[in-house]
Amino acid sequence: DAGVTQSPTHLIKTRGQHVTLRCSPISGHKSVSWYQQVLGQGPQFIFQYYEKEERGRGNFPDRFSARQFPNYSSELNVNALLLGDSALYLCASSLGTGATVSYEQYFGPGTRLTVT
Amino acid sequence: QKEVEQNSGPLSVPEGAIASLNCTYSDRGSQSFFWYRQYSGKSPELIMFIYSNGDKEDGRFTAQLNKASQYVSLLIRDSQPSDSATYLCAVANDYKLSFGAGTTVTVRA
Questions:
Q1: By the CB < 8 Å criterion, does A45 face chain B?
Q2: CA of B43, closest CA in chain A: separation in Å?
Q3: By CB neighbour count within 10 A (0-12 exposed, 13-18 middle, 19+ buried), where does B54 fall?
């Protein structure tokens, strides 16, 4: 079975531009989460979507937005790019999102975004 | 106080030895605990998860959880050069995973 897929693999943008990153979850998984990882740090939570609804949002500015489609794929959008947005953006897929226990999350290969 | 803290590295162990990785977390309501392995330039790979107090073994890996002490650990037995990577501890609260900064392990041949 295919794992989590993300596109593009690498991206170079200029400050002030907009970017859209895409993610397809593992077949049968209904939840997608987005994380940002800067060099030397662990991933930071941005969003989680479950059944096309936003389940949670991390401490990121409103320039960051996301959505989930009926086929459970997802897009992460970032407006007005800043140099500090340069990072590895990771998408994670899980079966669902639990109230009492969290389902395991499996990561895609990531999109390396460089803002110049 | 950081939500998740890991022992600072890097950790260097000889081939065949046991590598011991530690993690503490601040939120007593945390429900689930995960260990990810991340090779340089790659994305994190889930290697262990544990939900209940005690030990959980999977091959050469053993995860240990003590909720009273808010402590989770990972032991890698018979360490191999292929185990050289950064190990990330992640703690779940409902939908969100909070990660530590990671501990880099180098296995010396």
A1: yes
A2: 5
A3: exposed
**Sign of dihedral through CA atoms A76, A64, A84, B95?**
negative
CB B65 within 8 A of CB B57: no
The reply to whether residue A41 touches residue B101, judged by beta carbons under 8 angstroms, is yes
Contact residues on chain A for B102, CB-CB shorter than 8 A: 41-42
First-last CA distance in chain B: 37
Q: Do A43 and B32 touch (CB under 8 A)?
A: no
Which tokens in the block code for residue B64?
């240990």
CB-closest option in A41, A97, A107 to B43: A107
CA distance A68 to B30: 26
Cα A36 from Cα A75, distance rounded (Å): 14
pLDDT tens digits, residue range B47-83? 999 999 999 999 999 999 999 999 999 999 999 999 9
| pLDDT, tens only, B63-73 | 999 999 999 99
Apex A44 CA angle, B101 and A11, nearest 5: 110
